[in-house]
């Protein structure tokens, strides 16, 4: 009987061991995920399962196997995750364009004020010349019969001509700048509108995919939902085991930097908080919202989305991975988690799930990137 209970509690022990490792001062020691235990199968009501025996598959909606339903749901949420990344990127670009338009507007205001000042100076010079009978003082001195007054007047005349030329040149430059600002503002507005359209399209895709996934789950009975969670765990276990069997973790022993430790502490402190697309805390997160905020808390600003994190952050070899590094998943870079050591990562999985620990190899790895390279 004790043996059966141990097998049923194996999954819980994996989590407890991993959490214990995270609480230790050295985040890159231990074997919590380097040798994962297989998830235990729940016993059928009234008939305890044989030790190690998988539960019988339950039929899903439309006659599909529950495993196929799980795959369908996972794919829908993965597509939603990809659309979420596109939404987040469009949102960031929209903010950047909005900020730039405000900056241009301020430059236009300053330019118009400068032109008004230059015109006032030009007007004052013209009025002074008119009062002097059409000749500036320097010109009158230059026409004097006194050699000293002539030389002084000639010098003043040259200075006056240069001042007038500089005034006209500055006026021309300022007017050219205003024209350039107007053209740039027009381009920014076009990009702003394009980003807003992208946001709306991505938002629609996200809502459609999540709704479809939720509808699939809503058709499941309580027992099926429990079995679905178990199937998710088993799929993650298989993927992690296959990844470890390649020797992927054999040479991984990097130590976290001080900033990396702060990022890991922030990320793991969010465990149990729900996933919400587009969220960056403090009560909920999406996958890249979690990683970007964790590194912000560590004092390092990084790109908001997993795709931009992949594009802009330095890539490192898997063997050089250390706690705090970000693991980018899937070919479209639609998901990201933070490596915490011992073959484990922390991430915000998908709608309906909470921030949690998982095996670093429980999903297809595309790349590892380093925020504090």
Summarize this structure briefly.
This protein is an alpha+beta fold and 373 residues long.
Describe the structure.
The chain is α+β, with helices and mostly antiparallel strands and 373 residues long. The protein contains nine helices and six strands, in the order αααααααααββββββ. The chain has a six-stranded antiparallel sheet. A hairpin with a 2-residue loop joins strand 3 and strand 4 (344-347).
| Net shape | elongated
Number of helices: 9
Please describe the biggest sheet, giving its number of strands, its sense, and whether it closes into a barrel.
6 strands, antiparallel
List the secondary-structure elements in sequence, H or E.
HHHHHHHHHEEEEEE
Structural class: alpha+beta
Strand residue content: 5-15%
- First and last CA, distance: 51 Å
Round the mean pLDDT to the nearest integer and report it. 78
Radius of gyration: 33 Å
Poorly predicted regions: 1-32, 41-56
Task: Write out key terms for the chains shown.
373 residues, alpha+beta, 6-stranded antiparallel sheet, 9 helices, 59% helix, disordered N terminus
What's the topology here?
Elements: H1 2-8, H2 10-23, H3 66-131, H4 137-142, H5 147-218, H6 222-245, H7 258-269, H8 287-297, H9 306-312, E1 315-316, E2 326-329, E3 335-341, E4 344-347, E5 356-359, E6 365-369
Antiparallel strand pairs: 1-6, 2-3, 2-6, 3-4, 4-5
Helix pairs in contact: 3-5, 3-6, 7-8
């Amino acid at each position: 009987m004790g043996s059966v209970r141990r097998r049923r509690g194996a999954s819980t022990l994996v989590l407890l061991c991993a959490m214990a490792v995270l609480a230790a001062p050295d985040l890159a020691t231990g074997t919590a995920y380097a040798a994962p235990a297989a998830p235990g199968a729940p016993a059928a009501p009234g008939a305890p399962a044989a030790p190690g025996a998988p539960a019988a598959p339950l039929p899903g909606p439309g006659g599909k196997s529950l495993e196929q339903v799980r795959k369908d749901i996972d794919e829908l949420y993965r597509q939603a995750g990809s659309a979420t990344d596109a939404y987040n990127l469009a949102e960031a670009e929209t903010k950047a364009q909005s900020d730039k338009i405000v900056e241009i507007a301020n430059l236009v205001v300053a330019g118009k004020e400068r032109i008004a000042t230059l015109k006032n100076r030009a007007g004052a010079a013209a009025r002074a010349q008119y009062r002097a009978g059409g000749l500036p003082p320097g010109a009158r001195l230059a026409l004097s019969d006194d050699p000293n007054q002539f030389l002084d007047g000639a010098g003043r005349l040259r200075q006056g001509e240069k001042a007038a030329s500089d005034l006209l040149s500055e006026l021309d430059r300022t007017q050219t700048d205003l024209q350039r600002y107007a053209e740039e503002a027009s381009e920014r507005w076009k990009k702003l509108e394009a980003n807003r359209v992208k946001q709306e399209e991505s938002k629609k895709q996200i809502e459609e995919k999540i709704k479809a996934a939720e509808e699939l789950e809503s058709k499941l009975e309580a027992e099926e939902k429990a079995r679905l969670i178990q199937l998710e765990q088993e799929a993650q276990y298989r993927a992690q085991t296959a990844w470890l069997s390649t020797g992927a973790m054999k040479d991984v022993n990097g130590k976290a930097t001080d900033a990396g430790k702060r990022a890991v502490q922030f990320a793991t402190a969010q465990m149990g908080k729900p996933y919400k697309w587009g969220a960056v805390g403090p009560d909920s997160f999406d996958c890249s919202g979690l990683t970007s905020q964790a590194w912000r808390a560590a004092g390092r600003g990084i790109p908001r989305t997993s795709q931009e994190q992949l594009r802009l952050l330095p890539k490192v070899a898997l063997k050089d991975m250390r706690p705090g590094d970000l693991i980018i998943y899937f070919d479209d870079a639609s998901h990201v988690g933070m490596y915490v050591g011992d073959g484990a990562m922390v991430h915000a999985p998908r709608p309906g799930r909470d921030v949690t620990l998982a095996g670093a190899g429980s999903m297809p790895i595309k790349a590892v990137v380093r925020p504090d390279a």
